């Protein structure tokens, strides 16, 4: 009689842990140890018996710094694989570099305090999680509802503004920014899983980090500020390695957004800004209680175009907001013509239950709201088709979204000017060369031959 023996169970990976410093550091240690144990890691009492060591350091007084540095040195000598976290991890050394890295260059990763997520990402990178048949069926990038080649990356939840037509803050609360290390780790997983276009979303992308006072987080052992500029630059640098695009949504035109435009000109993120302006007239904007000063939006957009001439601006507007006069609406149409918004959408105002705007006087009659929306869209379409017409003859990089039969009969894609679902597309004709194929999720160059409504028609070359 033959018998099949199951392979012996694999020993769980072991982590050595040293916790130095004050009670705040101790609670950080507890959080990390809890997470390690929840994921099936075991702890080791000795450095030599561990697969990897985490040292939670203290950087308060000289003695504590010395003790922390000595402990890291010991762990490196006896084990070799060391992750450093805690207050000392955030200390600068000579010349502005990281003190721990200067003293012990061979550590695997360094983070500051309160950084469970970053520490766990470093652990996963250097000592993979034990297999769990229940959760390991989930791909590392999580379950995504978008096609494999593009994905949304949420960087924060909630909003600190109180626009009178909106009830999001009452449902989702004030702004809570995700730790920058987590956001960048998720981005990397998405790129590794084949994502070629990352769409950054939130309620207010420009406000990223305001709630945590732009605190310094850690990623890949390096300090990175929880701030829009640093996030976009880091995402752009990461995306470059994977030949992928980064597109920004829901950006309010605060002055610091001007600093992002040179990153677009450098090619670190797409020269595309989705800026929900909602209106142009200062009185309407005041009644809407919109963030950022609307009076200077024309100037701001002109400045963006000066810094990065190919920038595409998408925006949404509301027609028929309570109290909107004919003159205020005309102001909006004039703004649209002057700002030459590439992609403009418009909603007729519709009262959301619970929104404070419902109590404003002088509601605009339903039919007039609709009529204004239609007038707005007629102007918007003129501006947009003029701009699309200017692209005829240009060669553009196109990300292929559909290509039946390897694209022999053509396909559908998008250029940097088209976000998925909300903008137009590039309709691809059969490729010029017989040998050329198109594949979903890959880029192709294409020569624009015509503009059709919101779309372009192009030949892959
Ligand atoms: S509309 Fe205003 S309140 Fe609502 S999410 Fe956007 S900025 Fe926040």
Overview of this protein structure:
Helix 3 links the parallel strand 4 and strand 5. The strands form 6 sheets. This protein has a 5-stranded parallel beta sheet, with helices on both faces. It has a 5-stranded mixed barrel with strand order 16-17-18-20-19. It has a 3-stranded parallel beta sheet with strand order 6-9-12, covered by helices on one side. It is α/β, with parallel strands linked by helices and 461 residues long. Helix content is 31%, strand content 21%. Helix 6 runs parallel beside helix 7 (228-241). It starts with 13 loop residues before the first strand and ends with a strand. The protein has helices at residues 23-38, 62-78, 99-103, 116-126, 168-172, 180-192, 228-241, 261-265, 282-288, 297-307, 326-339, 366-389, and strands spanning 14-19, 42-44, 52-57, 82-86, 109-110, 150-154, 156-157, 176-177, 197-201, 216-219, 222-225, 245-248, 272-274, 312-319, 343-348, 395-402, 411-414, 426-428, 443-452, 455-460. The radius of gyration is 27 Å and the shape is globular. The structure holds iron/sulfur cluster (SF4).
């Amino acid at each position: 009689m033959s018998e099949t023996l199951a392979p012996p169970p694999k020993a769980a990976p072991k982590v050595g842990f040293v916790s130095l410093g004050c009670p705040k550091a101790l609670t950080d240690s507890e959080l990390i140890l809890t997470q390690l144990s929840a994921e099936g890691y075991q702890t080791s009492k000795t450095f030599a018996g561990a697969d990897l060591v985490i040292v939670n350091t203290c950087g308060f007084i000289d003695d504590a710094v010395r003790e922390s540095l000595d402990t890291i040195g010991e762990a490196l000598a006896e084990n070799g694989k060391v992750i450093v976290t805690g207050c000392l991890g955030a200390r600068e050394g000579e010349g502005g570099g990281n003190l721990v890295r200067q003293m012990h260059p061979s550590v695997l990763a360094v983070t500051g305090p309160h950084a469970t997520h970053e520490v766990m990402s470093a652990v996963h990178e250097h000592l993979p999680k034990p297999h769990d048949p229940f959760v390991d069926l989930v791909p590392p990038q999580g379950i995504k509802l978008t096609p494999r080649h593009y994905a949304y990356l949420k960087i924060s939840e909630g909003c600190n503004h109180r626009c009178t037509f909106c009830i999001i803050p009452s449902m989702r609360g004030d702004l809570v920014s995700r730790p920058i290390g987590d956001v960048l780790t998720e981005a990397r997983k998405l790129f590794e899983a084949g994502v070629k276009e990352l769409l950054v979303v939130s309620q207010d992308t420009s406000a990223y980090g305001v709630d945590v006072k732009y605190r310094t987080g850690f990623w890949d052992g390096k300090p990175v500020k929880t701030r829009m500029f640093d996030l976009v630059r880091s995402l752009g640098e990461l995306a470059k390695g994977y030949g992928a695009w980064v597109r920004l949504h829901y950006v309010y035109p605060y002055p610091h957004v001007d600093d992002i435009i040179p990153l677009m000109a450098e090619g670190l993120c797409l020269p595309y800004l989705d800026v929900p302006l909602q209106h142009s007239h200062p009185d309407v904007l005041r009644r809407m209680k919109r963030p950022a000063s609307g009076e200077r939006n024309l100037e701001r957009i002109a400045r963006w175009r000066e810094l990065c001439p190919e920038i595409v601006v998408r925006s949404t507007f509301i027609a028929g907001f309570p109290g909107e006069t004919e003159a205020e609406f005309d102001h909006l149409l004039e703004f649209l013509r002057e700002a030459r918004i590439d992609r403009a959408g418009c909603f007729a105002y519709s009262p959301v239950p619970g929104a404070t705007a419902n109590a404003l006087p002088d509601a605009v009659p339903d039919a007039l709201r609709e009529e204004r929306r239609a007038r707005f869209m007629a102007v918007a379409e003129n501006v947009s088709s003029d701009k699309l017409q200017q692209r005829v003859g240009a060669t553009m990089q196109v990300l292929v979204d559909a290509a039946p039969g390897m694209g022999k009969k053509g396909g559908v894609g998008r250029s940097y000017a088209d976000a998925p679902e909300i903008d137009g597309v590039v309709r691809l004709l059969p490729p010029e060369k017989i040998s050329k194929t198109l594949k979903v999720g890959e880029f192709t160059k294409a020569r624009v031959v015509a503009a059709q409504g919101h779309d372009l028609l192009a030949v892959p070359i």
